Amino acid sequence: MATKTLDTLLARELSALGDEDRLKGRECVFSGVLPAANGHGPRYMIAGHGSRPFLRMNSNNYLGLSLNAAVIAAEENAVQTMGTGPGAVRFISGTWAPHVMLEEKLAAFHGREAAIVFSSAYAAMMGTLPRLITGDSAVISDALNHNCIINAIRLAQPKEKRVFAHLDLRDLEDNLREASKSYRRAVVVTDGIFSMRGDHAELDEVMEIARDHDSAFPEGVVVVADDSHGVGAYGATGRGTEEASGARADVLIATLGKAFGVNGGYVAASATLVNYLRETSPFYIYSNPISPGEAAAAARAVDLVASEDGQNLLRHLRAHAAQFREGLKNMGFETIAGAHPICPLLLRSTARTANMVAGLMERGILATGINYPVVPKGEEEIRFQVSADHTAADIDEVLGALAELR
User: Fold this and answer.
1) Catalytic residue check, 159
2) Which of 180, 195, 245, 291 is catalytic?
3) Model confidence at 365, in pLDDT bands (50, 70, 90)?
4) pLDDT of 177-233, one tens digit each?
5) Is the Cβ–Cβ distance between 241 and 193 less than 8 Å?
6) How far apart are the C-alpha atoms of 60 and 68, rounded to whole Å?
7) For residue 102, which of 154, 203, 299, 384 is within the disulfide window of CB 3.0 to 4.6 Å?
8) What is the mean pLDDT of residues 109-124?
9) Long-range contacts of 166-169 (CB under 8 A, 24+ apart)
10) What is the spatial distance between Cα 129 and Cα 119, in angstroms, rounded to a whole number?
11) Is the dihedral of CA 17, 18, 20, 24 positive or negative?
């Protein structure tokens, strides 16, 4: 069979990845969840580990909403009423009332004219950025932007792609100045919160630089921000990097699968741009949306984040993220300062990272090592992620384990 030859070649490539320490390895399979009890947050059961519970420090579920009773009830009620799936892409027969309600709530939450929901945030970026890039556009991207941005730019095939040094606004300005000599439009794209580090774009300064150079381009400068890790987990009321920096991107892309605890991605922008995406973006037109149940659950999550209960969750989250960062600092570990619940422990070695992750798992703690090529060589880390469903005792447990492993 022809696939035998292909399998041989692919096995050789996998072996090479292993030799370079680039294999991600087998995935952890969760088999159950134990509710919070006795001063501790939820614990997770893993297939193959019997009845031993694990503390999860590697989840994007920043507010714990995936286990929230009101969010679960909203999904269950919608499933009972509308079934488990949308049945088609949206323009055929796959738009349900919860989809429309969710988009209206997201637009209001972000103070935008409109919003559009995609099957994931990755699909939202892949389906949006190429629609903004013409054959006469220059794209200017932060060096540490997420993989979805990198691949969306590749898909767009811009005439010129420029990369500015991470958070280096002078370099951004220099690139805009150079691009203005040759192109009609510039598209500046950045993460809001950078997913491996927990640091953030100074969006107010990015927007100021973009506006200063807007008139140099006949079609202007468009700023796109992917704040998937920021929305719901950052800013005084959970509006993300925009709120924290006091500025608003032209196009905001974010996820429903992190702080909102559900599934899917979305774009919030002007009504004209959203309508344009509905008519032209293949990732929207030709792909099924999230289910009606997921949309109803996400809408309930948006309401929760905007409520006093949501503010209490955010205060709880900030307090425990600060507790964890302070603990790392007091033990002499290298981390990155900030207020986001992503708390990286920089080990700068694949072997050290793997050993510490294994040691944590032996102690019942799940954490993920991040190695090259996800991060540059020399910046290997364990990305710890604090959640509002953690307790002070949970944080002390992790810090105690790290103290032993040191």
Assistant:
1) no
2) 195
3) very high
4) 999 999 999 999 999 999 888 899 999 999 999 999 999 999 999 999 999 999 999
5) yes
6) 15
7) 299
8) 98
9) 166/142, 166/194, 167/142, 167/199, 167/201, 167/202, 169/202, 169/205, 169/206, 169/209
10) 16
11) positive
Amino acid at 235: G
State the pTM of this model.
Answer: 0.95
For residue 371, give both structure tokens: 């190695």
> Which of 291, 306, 321 marks a domain boundary?
306
Give residue-wise pLDDT tens across range 154-184. 999 998 999 999 999 999 999 999 999 999 9
Where residue 161 sits, what CATH number does that domain have? 3.40.640.10
Q: How many domains does the chain have?
A: 2
Burial pattern 168-181, b for ≥16 Cβ within 10 A else e, equals: eeebbbebbeebbe
Mean per-residue pLDDT over the chain, rounded: 95
Decide: helix, strand or coil at residue 168.
coil
Tokens of 402: 């790290």
Tokens of 106: 């997201």
- Distance, in Å, from the CA atom of 298 to the CA atom of 289, rounded to the nearest integer, reads 13
Whether residue 195 lies in the annotated active site: yes
The Cα–Cα gap between 282 and 270 comes to 19
Give residues with Cβ within 8 angstroms of 29, minimum separation 6. Answer: 46, 47, 48
Residue 69: Cβ within 10 Å count? 7
For residue 361, pLDDT beyond 90? yes
From 105, 110, 213, 258, active-site residue: 258
Which CATH number does the domain housing residue 358 bear?
Answer: 3.90.1150.10
Instruction: Report how far Cα 203 is from the mean position of its chain's Cα atoms.
Output: 17
Listed residues 284, 306, 328: the one ending a domain: 306
- The one catalytic residue in 99, 213, 229, 390 is 229
Q: Which domain holds residue 340?
A: 26-56+308-405
